[in-house]
Write a structure and sequence with these properties.
Blueprint (H helix, E strand, L loop, with lengths): L4 H6 L2 E7 L5 E9 L6 E9 L6 E2 L7 E6 L5 E5 L17 E5 L7 E2 L7 E6 L6 E7 L8 H11 L12 E2 L2 E2 L8 E7 L7 E2 L14 E3 L5 E9 L5 E9 L5 E4 L5 E3 L3 E2 L5 E8 L9 E6 L5 E4 L8 E5 L5 E5 L8 E5 L5 E3 L8 E7 L5 E7 L2 E8 L8 E2 L13 E9 L5 E9 L6 E7 L18 H4 L4 E5 L9 H5 L9 H14 L4 E11 L1 H12 L5 E5 L5 H4 L6 H7 L9 H4 L15 E4 L8
Parallel strand pairs: 34-35, 34-36, 36-37, 37-38
Antiparallel strand pairs: 1-2, 2-3, 3-4, 5-6, 6-7, 7-8, 9-10, 10-13, 11-12, 13-14, 15-16, 16-17, 17-18, 19-21, 20-21, 21-22, 22-23, 24-25, 25-26, 26-27, 28-29, 29-30, 30-31, 32-33, 33-35
């Protein structure tokens, strides 16, 4: 079976979903290549939850994304499309705004006109309220924001002045310049009228991926705001805004603690989030936390559940939370009792796969985006019951499930300390003889190789070329308990994790279907680091590919985008006090032993690694 890179990038990408108020259909954002094949644009689709055929709602060369339903059934979404009466401006002017597809049909109409664009938004489910994030330049009139931004961008100083960390995040620079735009929280009617800036003096509180939710009655908004902590990292704190009085109240502020995206209960009296404490001694251990919005009291639930949950929604009766979490190489959907904290796996274990963006339908079922190592992301639905088999709703990606030409298996290998190391193996179905092996090491390191689709690291591209691809989950991988994660915390990257990987490689090379003389290892980020480390420790692989990798721990401290986090991740050691000791597991210290040919790949805007 031929499956090429060209076919891979031409697939449509199901990326976001929202459930209609009556639960009869999903609004789905689907990315695709534009007509020139040069960039991705996105359309909205209507996917009925009874399995009827899907219908495309929007078309064109714009990015229509982030679907959200208004209280009257209208469909809001972000788009960089131009108003019908306006001639398209330069690409720099195509900033995202909130648009609405009316519930009774018709053309989309623009709700907002933010000069510098809208970043994200939420409607109240039962009220005439819209909240959103938008960039605003302080001290500049609304109708002069865009002109001012353009002038300052072309003629303003290019120097950057910083007083505190961090100064960059992933692929872009942050700023601490009072003359530049910052993200603000804006409220208005659901029609986009009566705009009010709730945070006119905002600086960097919303600089990095702020979360937002609105109570169903439209009376309150919950956000995450960032403040500098004693460890020089950013705390993420839950803050509730009263949208009538415009007053704000901080929930659960604590030093060196991160709270995730808050989610209001249906009656608005509770907020669910996750809380994770930062420490040089212990790896983060996120715990579901429920705040009482009236008194601010917090209680933690499911504290003994050693998984990293992502809370997505409440059930309509307010008794359960719907969440996803990595679990043994998959990402199932779970229901957690809001009272007792009892955890129940909803998606059937035998179905495997990975789920994201779960939403609760009006009839109580749960819809989600589901994928596997052999199938692209699509919309599925399941009952909110234990061991429910997910059912497909539509095929929007254009991919034909690969089980006819590729097969996936999962097995455990005992490491040097007796711990089981779960590993996936994907290979051509029915292949005869021995196969060359690609050994893929995941990044993170606190992440996982999952039974899920990956747009960048997709094993099927190699399987189609006749390779077997192994995807191990060594020490540090999520979904195998907190002690397993702790095994990578501190300056021990090249220790037990390396032994885990070599144990898996040993087991694979003993298999009758693997050619032990034709093996290669590759990885990105932490996986790239481990590929480098492998290059200095063994010559067992014929070649290596290292992508966006770390080569020296000590120098990485001053080049990564979040150096304060790196201090914690390395166990609080000081790289400047004894750089050689700090680099004891750094490939640079052993580079003279490296003999294996290696392809090095890096991105100019990768400020992390």
């Amino acid at each position: 079976m031929a499956y090429t890179v060209q076919q891979h990038i031409a697939l449509k990408r199901v990326s976001e979903i929202a459930a209609s108020p009556d639960g009869k259909w999903l609004a789905v954002s689907v990315q695709r290549l534009d007509r020139d094949g040069a960039k991705y644009v996105s359309d909205l689709w209507r996917v009925p939850t009874n399995g009827a055929p899907a219908v495309q709602l929007t078309r064109g060369e714009s990015k229509d994304s982030a679907p959200q339903f208004r209280h009257d059934g209208g469909l809001g979404f972000l788009s960089n499309r131009q108003p019908n009466e306006v001639k398209p401006d330069e690409e720099a002017e195509r900033r995202m705004q909130i648009w609405l597809l009316p519930a009774d049909g018709g053309e989309p109409r623009q709700l907002t006109d933010e000069p510098l664009g809208v970043e994200s938004f939420r409607f109240a489910k039962r009220a005439d309220r819209l909240c959103y994030y938008a960039a605003v330049i302080p001290g500049v009139e609304h109708d002069k924001q865009r002109e001012t931004a353009t002038k300052r961008g072309k003629h303003g100083p290019s120097a950057r002045h910083y007083k505190v960390q961090p100064v960059r995040h992933w692929d872009h620079w942050l700023h601490q310049n009072p003359d530049l735009a910052n993200t603000h929280l804006i409220i208005c009617d659901a029609s986009g009228k009566n705009r009010v800036d709730l945070t006119p003096s905002a600086k960097a509180e919303f600089a990095i991926e702020p979360a937002l939710d609105v109570s169903e009655d439209g009376r309150h908004a919950a956000v995450t705001m960032q403040t500098l902590a004693s460890d020089r990292e950013l705390d993420s704190t839950v803050v509730v805004f009263d949208l009538t009085t415009r007053k704000q109240r901080v929930l659960g502020k604590s030093d060196c603690v991160d709270y995730s995206a808050p989610v209001f209960s249906p009656n608005g009296k509770s907020i669910a989030t996750t809380r994770a404490k930062r420490s040089a001694k212990r790896a983060p251990a996120p715990v579901i936390t429920i705040f009482d919005t009236t008194g601010g009291k917090a209680r933690r639930i499911a504290e003994r559940w050693e998984r990293w949950p992502h809370v997505a929604a409440w059930t309509a009766d307010g008794k359960r939370l719907i969440a996803t979490a990595d679990d043994g190489g998959c990402t199932p959907v779970f229901a957690i009792a809001a009272g007792s904290g009892a955890v129940q796996r909803i998606s059937a274990r035998e179905a495997g796969g990975s789920h994201s963006h779960p939403v609760v339908l009006a009839d109580g079922r749960v819809a989600a985006i589901r994928s596997s190592l052999t199938d692209a992301p699509e919309c599925w639905v399941m009952k909110a019951e234990k061991n429910s088999a997910p059912k497909p709703l539509a095929r929007l990606s254009g991919f034909v499930e690969a089980s006819k030409w590729a097969e996936m298996s999962s097995f455990n290998v005992r490491s040097t300390d007796g711990k089981p190391i779960q590993t996936f193996l994907v290979k051509p179905k029915g292949a005869k003889g021995t196969l060359p092996l690609a050994f893929w090491i995941h990044g993170g390191p606190m992440a996982s190789n999952l039974d899920g689709w990956h747009w960048r690291w997709n094993p099927l591209l190699l399987v189609a070329q006749g390779y077997a691809v192994a995807l191990p989950n060594p020490r540090g991988s999520t979904g195998f308990g907190q002690d397993f994660i702790q095994g990578i915390w501190g300056n021990v990257w090249g220790a037990q994790c390396y032994k885990d990987l070599m144990a898996v490689a040993d087991a694979l090379c003993k298999r009758p279907d693997i050619d032990a003389k034709r093996t290669m290892a590759m990885g990105g980020s932490f996986g790239g680091y481990m590929t480098n480390w492998i290059g200095t420790q063994t010559t067992r692989f014929r070649c290596l590919i290292t992508h966006a990798s770390v080569f020296t721990m000590a120098q990485f401290t001053g080049t990564t985008d979040h150096p304060a986090w790196w201090y914690l991740e390395m166990g609080g050691e000081n790289p400047y006090k004894d750089p050689e000791r700090f680099d004891r597991y750094a490939p640079v210290q052993h580079v003279s032993k490296w003999k294996t040919p290696c392809l090095v790949i890096h991105g100019e805007k990768d400020y992390r690694c």
